[in-house]
Amino acid sequence: MEETLLKILIISYGATGIIDTIAYWPTIKDLWFLKKPSANIQSYILWTITTGIGFLYSLLILPDWFFRFVSGMMFLANVVILF
C-alpha cells in the first residue's frame, strides 16, 4: 500500500508542471482580458495543491534538506495567500 502511494506521489509530482502551467490561464484571463487587478482564486487553489504535492515529494522521496525547505516555504506562501 505504501509503495502504491509513493508511486502515485511520484506521478503527481511529475504532473505538477503541466497543472501549474494550466493554472496560469484563469489569472492571465483576469489580468489581461478582464483587467482585474489581482490573481484568480482558481489559480491559487491549483498552485497550493501542486506546491503541497511538491512538499510531500520532498519529504517522502528526496533526501535533500534544501529542496524540503524551499518547497515547504513555497507551499506555506501559497496557503497564506489562499486563505
The biggest sheet, with number of strands, parallel, antiparallel or mixed sense and barrel status, is: none
Which percent range describes the beta-strand content?
under 5%
Mean pLDDT: 88
Query: What structural class results from the helix and strand content?
Result: mainly alpha
- Computed CA radius of gyration, to the nearest angstrom: 14 Å
**Uncertain segments:** none
**Proportion in helices:** over 70%
| Strand tally | 0
> What is the helix tally?
3
What best-fitting shape do the alpha-carbon axes yield?
A: elongated
User: In total, how many domains does the architecture comprise?
Assistant: 1
Q: How many angstroms separate the termini?
A: 33 Å
Could you state the order of secondary-structure elements as H and E? HHH
Describe the model:
The chain is mainly alpha-helical and 83 residues long. It has one domain (2-82). Helices cover 84% and strands 0% of the residues. It is built from three helices and no strands. The chain has helices spanning 2-33, 41-60, 65-82. It is elongated, with a radius of gyration of 14 Å. The mean pLDDT is 88.
Short description:
The chain is mainly alpha-helical and 83 residues long.
Descriptive terms for the model:
single chain, 83 residues, mainly alpha, 3 helices, 84% helix, elongated
Topology:
Blueprint: H1 2-33, H2 41-60, H3 65-82
